[in-house]
Structure prediction request, 193 residues.
Amino acid sequence: DDVYARSDGFIDSTALKFGSSTAGGLRSFLRWKIDIPQGSTIKKAFIKIKAKTEAAGGNFTAKQLLLDGYPTTTDFNNPYNLATKSGAVNYSTSNWNGIDGSWNELSDISTLVQKFIDRNDYIPNDSVKGYIGLSIQQGDTIGDNYKTAYAIEGGGIPELVIEYSPWIVEYQITDGKKDAVASSSAWDKIAAC
Prediction:
């Protein structure tokens, strides 16, 4: 699942936006079902999203945050004020490639993913407690200054790429109509919802 929300209550599931606009803050919310075994060590993790040309302003530092609890599809109906865990990871948009269709790898969030799988009640691949939720928020920007990426409904498939001991797994958010697809290699593409 993926959606962006504005501070004035507007919600859109056809694009992901983060930063600020004249209407207020812009926050993107994403969730993936993961099956990393408890006790694993996260070596590297990042969100990979496809840019849309629509953007405004210059560079800023966005924040990537782990959502508290186990977010559901219903939570994404009004997500702007969803609770987050402490420990934001910054992402400098000076690294953003804004050319339409260009893939962008955000900064490493291995600490956030490690915090998630270290929860006592985390259950790998569970229909509730196997979902990790992340948010990309405005950080230090004000005014009309944001970045835009494709959401599932807009034609993009945001990915959460995780390298952990001993495997590397690549998760894709899907439209919910596809079953999990796994390859025989060390890279798996798994449906998120």
About this structure: The chain has one helix and 13 strands. The two ends are 7 Å apart (CA to CA). The mean pLDDT is 87. The longest helix spans residues 110-117.
